Amino acid sequence: MKLKLSAIVYTIFCFLLLIGIQNVKAQNDPNTRDLLILAKWFEGEFDNDSQLWYEGRRSVKDKHDRMHTIHAKIDSSAIGDHVFYVEEYIDDDPKNISRQRIVSFTSLAPDEGIEMAIYFLKDAKKYVGAYTNTSVFKDFTKDDLFGLDGCNVIFQRDGEQYKGSMKEKACQFGEGKLKRYSVHDMVISKDQYWRVDRSFLVKDDSFYKGHPNEIPHKMRRAETYNCDVSFYVNSYVEPHPDDVKYKGLKIHNQGGMAWVVYPKNNKKYGFQLREKEYPFYGSGSDFFMMRFIEEGKKRSNILVTAEPGTSKLSFNNGWASCFCQKIEKQ
Known about the structure:
By secondary structure, this protein is mainly beta. Helix content is 13%, strand content 43%. The chain folds into 2 domains: 33-221, Lipocalin, CATH 2.40.128; 223-326, no CATH class.
């Protein structure tokens, strides 16, 4: 009996000792808080629609591509505690995928700073759209990935944001005359994600690929709204069997758009949400906008504006209506 009791006491002692060691390590890590904040801010969806809208109204020589990125947190203890699946698409087309990555954030303790390891998927096509069902990564291991030496991004806190960069010319790939190095600079704050991603030839530092200048893709955090759209053959006060309702359309507030058909004339109409920072005025410059436009037309049929961050927005013009409500995060 005493022997069994001693074994139980010893097991409890070892467990408490392990917890104590882990707590001491956490207390000695100068990056503990920043690691949690950076991982929290990195998660979500981001889009640079506002940047393109602004560039389109000015004489900007090298306009940026439209870019939408999704950072979904995944449970993968084999890789790390703060791991994300990244999927990006361009030109507002979810099928036009430009990037799939796995990234993992770790502390550089005892030094100050946070390191983001970047991995490539060996079978990327298998995971297209995996941000909608991250359980596919349940049995994920590093055997499913490959990386490049010197290509990790190091973050340092700078006020209320985190700035990250690769070490100069450390991330090299390719062979012979096409051997090149990557410049990968990032800024992450609570509501914005900016990135410069360019490559240069090692032989003469000449530009190879990416955006022509050093101005980053300036993406803003996107919030998703659940929208119901209705079209009425006569009017909303005169129900008709051929009235059409589109329920549960998911539209994000950084230029997200859904196209639907009005059965009376068989024309397509787009519903778009934009939460904007309008830089041309000193006051009243930020607003939320709902846009209703016929396909192929330059002018909107309807524009509705509201305060930034509004949770509900709607319109009804008699033969069409739309109601959108923000999907609150759990």
